[in-house]
Amino acid sequence: MTLNATLNEVTMRIVARSAEARAKYLAQMAAARSEGPKRAHLSCGNQAHAYAPMEGDKDALAVGRGANVGIITAYNDMLSAHQPFASYPDHIKDAVRSVGATAQVAAGVPAMCDGVTQGQDGMELSLFSRDAIAMSAAIGLSHNVFDATVYLGVCDKIVPGLVIAAARFGHLPAVFLPAGPMPSGMGNDEKTQVRKDFAEGKCDRTALMAAEMASYHGAGTCTFYGTANTNQMLMEFMGLHLPGSSFVAPNTPMRDALTTEGAKIAAGLSDLGSGYTPVSDILDEKAYVNGIVGLMATGGSTNLLIHLIAMARASGVVLDWQDFQDIADVVPLLTRIYPNGLADVNHFHAAGGLGLVIRELLGAGLLHGDTQTVVGRGLARYTQEPKLRDGALVWEDGVSASLNDKIIATVETPFQETGGLSALTGNLGHGVMKTSAVVPERRVMRAPCRVFHDQASVLAAFRAGEFTSDVVVVVRYQGPKANGMPELHGLTPCLTVLQDRGIKVALVSDGRMSGASGKVPAAIHVSPEALDNGPIAYLRDGDVVSVDAVNGILQADDPAIFERDIQHPDMTGAVGVGRELFALFRGATGAARDGASVFEF
Hints:
Strand order of the largest sheet: 9-10-14-13-12-11-15-16
Helix content: 25-40%
Radius of gyration: 24 Å
Shape: globular
Low-confidence stretches: none
Number of strands: 16
Number of helices: 21
Distance between the termini: 36 Å
Mean pLDDT: 93
Structural class: alpha/beta
């Protein structure tokens, strides 16, 4: 199938824009490889320190010819998605020994749960945890005793941080091993109704707690299609997962077989054999375009409009939001997964899953089919499904048609003609909106605004009954420089209640809304942020604002507002739950539309 002309044009534009940065990056990776396997350059004393605790593997490490695989793990047992990783290191070590290799845990990296910190002070550390994860992984890999790597991570900032680290050690092969989703719990529509009832005082906290516990109830990834599961989709579309591995349940024979195979593949890709495949060969311009296509076709998390840019920069690839918009214009929405629909990722996987979506997109010329992956060149392998046949792991052709057309559509009859995200621009700056869950009649909004400096003030105004007419709720000073760009997901229930009452409402913010942002039109990630003298800093209560996802507009009606003086609130008092330790990050971060990163590549 001929590649879509717009997709080709966007890709060539990215290649041209990235030429200098990509050449510099590849030269750095070639220099790192040229020294050969790193262990050969360590002194005997250096090596003895690295091998001292490795009973049974010391001879193989000291004189063997097999690869030594570095494990970067984000395990902790507070994150349901990461709890299954507890057993992975021993599993990986056993797997690679069977092919004459060894493995060591190179580093544990921090992994926080945005579900725990939603609406709490700790959420102000969330975005910056991505860069801290990349730095932590780099410390582990800096020992230079590894020939290949495996990365264990799933959730919101963890996978982007690990990809940044993998890119900076791009001369090494890298395989990402997921853990899989928890079993389906309470239906998403029922859970949402309980949250709305609580916001309106129609049920008590006991009922709310019971609903939440019925929704998040076991080991594995949360089953809605938020940032964590969008990450898993990206790893398949970009060729860093094994085909069909993202949404296989934890603690099952198939999950164990995929972990074993992934570990063996990582060892086999090292420079000590004939199949050397560094991750720098995988993370190229086409891979990132494929990731954006997947994001649009599945209506994924808005967080990835920040993370993909940061990940790409670490690989010498320069993306901007216009690339996302142009791809969204030609890629149809093919999935309905909560919050875009009622199905969860388990239902999606059963209906045909990522393999079927990739098959649809490849058939329509909407993916680069010739990219390098951890299982070879070409995305065709990712239309296949893993199967256990007499205990052996094999891949067979996946389904060619949806098993539930309310969950997965075709390119010919999509859920909507364009992708699930929209870029907005105008005299209030640049923002993005997740449109896949917003009904068409709510995608254009013009109303007077109410201006707030934190989400607690919005909730207080809601409880006081202050929202009685159509309103654009502006929540500013929530950008990365102001307070680390926390998610404002706690606003979703009250704003949804206003919509249900017949009030037209939209949100405008320089903060984030998370991958779970839903039915309320929300122009988020607004750049420049208010603390950077961004245009939203000039807004006052009553100014008329247009939020238009159809025509891509974020606009204040009266240009005279920009002649006002700005008085910023004092943002220097962030102390508690470690926020004072991240002042350096707040001072060094870039804008959201540039990836909100503290790194310069």
